[in-house]
Amino acid sequence: MPLSRSRYSSPFGLPWAWLVALLPLLLGAPLIYWQAERAHERQTAEGIRQAQGKLEQILDYADNATTMVSSLVGISCQTAVLPLREHSMATPFVRSLNLTHQGNIYCTSLYGISGAPEEPEQYVDGQLRLMPGNQVTPERAVLIFRRETTDGSVLAGIDTQYLADTLQLTSLSAPIDLQIGDLWLDAQGNTFHDGVGEQATHEITTTSSRYPFSLRASPDDTTLWPLLRADFGPLLIMLALLSLLFGIGARALERRSNSPLREIRRGLRDNEFEPFYQPIVDIETNTWKGLEVLMRWNHPQAGLIPPDQFVPLAERSGLIVGMTSQLMAKVAKDLAPHVYQLSPGFHVGFNISASHCEGKHLLEQCQQFLSAFPADTITLVLELTERELLKPSEMTTALFETLGNMNIRIAIDDFGTGNASLAYLRQFHVDYLKIDRSFVAMVGQDALSHHLLDNIIDLSTRLNLGIVAEGIETTLQRDYLSQRGVQFLQGYLYARPMPAEDLMRTLATSPESSPVKASPLET
Ligand code: C2E
Ligand code: CA
Ligand code: CA
Questions:
Q1: CATH number, domain at 357?
Q2: Ligand 1 atom having least distance to the Cα of 294
Q3: Is residue 512 part of a domain?
Q4: Ligand 1 site: residues with CB under 6 angstroms?
Q5: Closest of 58, 29, 256 to residue 158, by C-alpha
Q6: What confidence tens digit (pLDDT) does each residue in 206-260 have?
């Protein structure tokens, strides 16, 4: 059924359920990325801090060793070489200890007597020198720690492999480089002049307060992704699950928003409710006394939907008020140009639900409808079903008083199926009773049914109101009712409810508004 599901439910014509589903990912992913970046930076900073501590420890050993042998400076190499070797071997990380005097390295723990120049100006702060290689290890860089004494200096050679290992081990996420002067050492033990790490998004640097060296780490995307996968993978999975949940929720909402009520609301917005017209025939003159307007929903997919499939829900939700208003406007547009083809005071009847009588809209809508026609050309009739009686109140009493003064007629629809009292009929200024078609269908049936129908007709006659019988399908029914004084008849025998074009065509071919012989349905 067309009211259950519709492809037209998306308010923006967009697959919004997908957008909602992606929302956690769209919002969460940048947040996670940002968090990962922060964590990455924190890890890098922590790594660099650890590297600094370890390098300072290594240098502390060199510092100690050079202190221990500083008294040997100036003493002959023959005497000094042995203690130099002992201290060199006993001190972790220190590969050699050397003594200098008058600008010359005159004694080394490795070779004994030597004669190389000291070059003190090459030392950063006179203390540290990073050399790409030296005579002993031309392929491998060496770090030299220098301690100045009154007679010269002590130099401690440190294998850069230890330093490179330290850089490697402490590098938690981004590679760390060590800088001494204008030379750098990376975690692979290579020395270089600046230039590496140019693609780094942002560098983190630190400078030791105890020794003249700096460290630099360059976190970039290549080092970020492994961290993102390892530490934020579960969160990303959760986000994806949340997206899934959001998607399911949005889909469920979408389905709910496709509810019949929503669909009716859409139909109202898209102006899809159409009037069909069924004539009411005056049996005395054999002419059309008026029309009943019956609502149809011209649904884009389902085609014409009869009112019993949507009117009850529209009544419960209050949407019927707007729908009736839409219907009245269309009827006015259909009939106003042809008003002089209709007999004077031609009845136009609308079905009005009880809830509609509880607001001020009804009066306004009636006024608006009537204003579309020249005065006294048509008579507006409001049909109120007996199945759902109005609650008498000051407001409804006043409303019906006003409607009466405006010459708007009230008909009780489906008469006989409810229990409207005489007081009720008077209070609401009822003009017509419409005998329900279930009673009309009793014509020609058993005696008890006949009796019931006769009673309804008698009651209607005694109430001294205009009587309309609905659902006349056979000539037998027509004759029976007319014999019993029922003046107005409506039913398939005369015409089925028809769209405006058919009505206009019929009116055009029968200028006297008496097309009662049009397509009778005999049984
Ligand atoms: P109703 O007011 O009693 O309208 C008469 C119903 O009987 C119409 O059904 C009409 O097509 C049908 N009918 C007419 N002659 C015959 C006949 O000879 N034989 C048979 N079997 N049926 C006949 P429809 O158009 O399906 O409307 C059904 C109900 O929906 C209406 O009953 C009315 O209660 C409600 N309705 C229709 N239009 C509106 C509306 O604009 N507003 C409100 N609130 N209710 C409406
Ligand atoms: Ca009716
Ligand atoms: Ca009826």
A1: 3.20.20.450
A2: 38
A3: no
A4: 278, 294-295, 306-308, 311, 320, 324, 327, 351, 353, 383, 385, 413-414, 437, 470-473, 490-492, 497
A5: 58
A6: 999 999 999 998 777 777 777 777 777 888 888 888 888 888 888 777 776 668 8
Pocket test for ligand 1, best of 470, 492, 521, 522 (most atoms within 8 A of CB): 470
Q: Are the C-beta atoms of 230 and 40 separated by less than 8 Å?
A: no
Q: Which of 18-22, 38-42, 309-313, 397-401 has the lowest mean pLDDT?
A: 18-22
Is 132 exposed, middle or buried (CB count within 10 Å of its CB: 0-12, 13-18, 19+)? middle
Q: In total, how many domains does the chain have?
A: 1
Structural domain boundaries, residue 421: 259-507
Residue carrying the six token digits 């010459």: 407
Distance CA 509, CA 45 (A): 95
User: Left (φ > 0), alpha (ψ -120 to 50) or beta: where does 376 sit?
Assistant: left
Tell me whether residue 269 is in a domain. Answer: yes
In a domain, 18, yes or no: no
User: Which of 268, 292, 294 to mutate for ligand 1's pocket (most ligand atoms within 8 Å of CB)?
Assistant: 294
114: in domain: no
2 in the Ramachandran plot: left (φ > 0), alpha (ψ -120 to 50) or beta? alpha
